[in-house]
Every structure is written in structure tokens, then in C-alpha cells.
Design a protein that fits this description.
Helix 1 runs parallel beside helix 3. The N terminus is likely disordered. The chain is globular. By secondary structure, it is an alpha/beta fold. Helix 3 links the parallel strand 2 and strand 3. It has a seven-stranded mixed β-sheet. It has six helices and seven strands; from the N terminus they run ααββαββαβααββ. Helix content is about 35%, strand content about 25%. The longest helix is centred in the first third of the chain and has 16 residues. The protein has a single domain, classed as Rossmann fold.
């Protein structure tokens, strides 16, 4: 099946800037999330869909043999993603779609992966609903997300102060979404996650949730 025409959600300047930035910070992403990804991805198999793979930061962590589909609306991300997958020898199909409308059949994926995704989508509830739809019964949803700091904390204040510039620069990324509430309301049979603090130069997005969920059988 041929992939649909790409959907362009970014403008030329920010799209190229973000693609460059994501490639630049891959060593930092490994330091922050490498152990989490190795643990969460270790038993993935079969048909795996990654929503928002960006420039391919997760590609090194997938076990051999998975059939990987990337749902990536940015043309600038797609170019870098395909190039990295080719260099690594990872079979990958890229579909230029938004996570709110995935053109895959119901119950067609063994796993869905979403890392640092729900902060920037237009409708996180719909994206998780699509993930649930395409998962097979018993399928796994794997996630790492930066989230809102506790209200009244210093970090929450910084998230509020940085919201507008961060939202513009990173094409809609929210500094302070309560993403765990979206996941808790999604109807997963099992939802297992932990709150972590991952300090980096973008300290205001240090609060994270890391975990996985299972679709009811």
C-alpha cells in the first residue's frame, strides 16, 4: 500500500530548525531517556506504530524484526527520519499524517510508541483514542512525556513564563499539559507509569511521566 501524500504542519524555517535541533540533541536524549527506552522497548515485536518519530531518535532502541510504521506529519522530519533508518538498516514505512487521523485499520498494531508527543499535538485525547483503536486487544502503548509541574511550584511558574516562546518555537508544544489525566481516562486495561524529573538545559520541562499501558483484551 502506498503512503498518502505528506501533511505539512510546520513552516519552512521552524521545520528545518526543529529537525536540526532534534538531531543535535540526540546524545542528550540518550543520556536522559536511553535506559528508559531500552527497558520499555525490549519486548516490542510484530507490527509497531510510532506516532511522531521526528528525526528517528527511537530507531536504535527497536528490537530486530519489528515491522515499523512512522506517523510523521513534518516533511523536514521525514527526510531526516528516512535517512537515519536507511543508514541503520531499519525497515520503516513513513506516513505523512497527524496522530489524530491515522489511516490504519482497527486492531492492526501490536504496539504503539509515543515519546515526547502528546505535548505538541492539537488534540491529545484524539491521538490516544487513535492509538487505542489501532492496537490489537492486549496491545501495548509505550510513552515518555514531559508534563505539568505541580501547581504552585517554582517549576510550574517557569512553565507558564516559557509557554508562549516554547509553544511558538517548537510548533505547538505545550510546557504544562496534564498528560497523565488523558491516559488515565483513555480506558486502558493496565496503566503503569512513574513520575520522573529529567533535568536538562530546558529545565522547565523536566517533569516527566514514563511507562506503558495495555489495551483491554
Amino acid at each position: 500500500m502506498s503512503a498518502p501524500e505528506p501533511h505539512t504542519r510546520d513552516n519552512a524555517i521552524r521545520g528545518r530548525l526543529n529537525a536540526f535541533f532534534l538531531r543535535l540533541i540526540e546524545p542528550l536524549m540518550e543520556k536522559l531517556f536511553g535506559d528508559d527506552k531500552r527497558r520499555l522497548f525490549a519486548d516490542l515485536e510484530g507490527d509497531v506504530v510510532e506516532i511522531g518519530p521526528g528525526t528517528g531518535a527511537n530507531l536504535p532502541y527497536y528490537p530486530a524484526g519489528v515491522n515499523l510504521i512512522g506517523i510523521e506529519p513534518s516533511l523536514h522530519m521525514q527526510n531526516a527520519l528516512r535517512e537515519k533508518a536507511e543508514k541503520m538498516g531499519v525497515p520503516l514505512e513513513v506516513r505523512g499524517l497527524k496522530g489524530e487521523a491515522i489511516d490504519l485499520p482497527d486492531a492492526s498494531a501490536d504496539a504503539v510508541v509515543a515519546t515526547l508527543l502528546l505535548c505538541s499535538v492539537d488534540d491529545p485525547i484524539q491521538v490516544v483514542s487513535e492509538a487505542m483503536r489501532i492496537l490489537r486487544p492486549g496491545g501495548k502503548y509505550v510513552f515518555i512525556e514531559h508534563v505539568a509541574a505541580p501547581k504552585g511550584s517554582v517549576l510550574h511558574l517557569w512553565q507558564t513564563l516559557f509557554f508562549r516562546p516554547h509553544h511558538w518555537l517548537f510548533e505547538g508544544c505545550h510546557t504544562n499539559r496534564k498528560t497523565w489525566e488523558v491516559l488515565e481516562a483513555a480506558g486502558f486495561e493496565v496503566l503503569d507509569y512513574e513520575h520522573h524529573t529529567k533535568w536538562s538545559i530546558m529545565f522547565y520541562v523536566a517533569p516527566m511521566i514514563v511507562g506503558h499501558a495495555t489495551k483491554p483484551r
